[in-house]
Amino acid sequence: MKQGEPWLKWASELQSLAQAGLYYGKDKFDRERYARIREIAAEMVARQTDLPLEQVKGWFCNETGYQTPKLATRAAVFQGEHVLLVREPKGWALPGGWVDVDVSVRENVIKEVREEAGLEVRPDRVIALQDGENHHETLYPWKVCIVFVLCTLLGGEFRENLETSESGWFSLNELPELDLEKTTPEQLRMCFEARGAEHWETRLE
Question: 41 with 18: CB under 8 angstroms?
């Protein structure tokens, strides 16, 4: 299933409206209706994807307040003409992940590189803010905003961790098998272009 399919957009919109209604609504009968709409949206996604209903409810039914896009970061760290990639279960990717609720984007970039590659970096420049569904076919019932950040390597070495099995440095012409749900060749080319540009204009989607 592709991210941009109409039924997924409809289910996501129903979920968003129901979540806002549950947060702002005062009438108990209206709140019951909003809760049922949220359940229907989860059932739609589960039926179309064959995912367990409880997993989809975990996506849909655990948040409160006005729903906004999810935020993720990816760090572009270079050593000479090579970029840092980390090996995840489905392939290699730029280090990164969801932005935790208690950190800034800058702090999250530093934390993710440290956790996944054992390295210390200094975030220097925002390369791009991308709409995830324009670049990945990962199925999420919400919008995802990916922040690509150009970083300077300060030091460190790879440490065993729960998320990645190894790290490595790769040229653009000798890329390993990528986890395309997290990093694409096009995104890596963009990062190489940003590194080589004297004046880079952040790409905004």
Answer: yes
Q: What are the start-end ranges of the H helices in the chain?
A: 6-24, 28-49, 53-60, 105-117, 185-196
pLDDT tens track of the chain, all 205 residues? 455 578 877 887 887 788 778 777 888 888 888 888 888 888 888 888 788 888 777 766 666 667 778 899 999 999 999 999 999 999 999 999 999 888 999 999 999 999 999 999 999 999 999 998 888 876 666 788 999 999 999 999 998 888 999 999 999 999 999 999 999 999 999 999 999 998 999 999 9
Nearest to 111 by CA among 63, 156, 170, 169: 156
The residues, any chain, with a CB within 8 Å of residue 113's CB and separated by 6 or more, are 75, 77, 84, 95, 119, 120, 121, 151
For 151, the token pair is 């970083």
- Cβ–Cβ < 8 Å for 122, 152: yes
Q: Which two tokens stand for residue 144?
A: 């995802």
CA distances from 97 to 5, 26, 76 (A): 24, 36, 13
> How far is Cα 43 from Cα 27, in angstroms, rounded to an integer?
25
List of residues 6+ apart from 160 with CB closer than 8 A? none
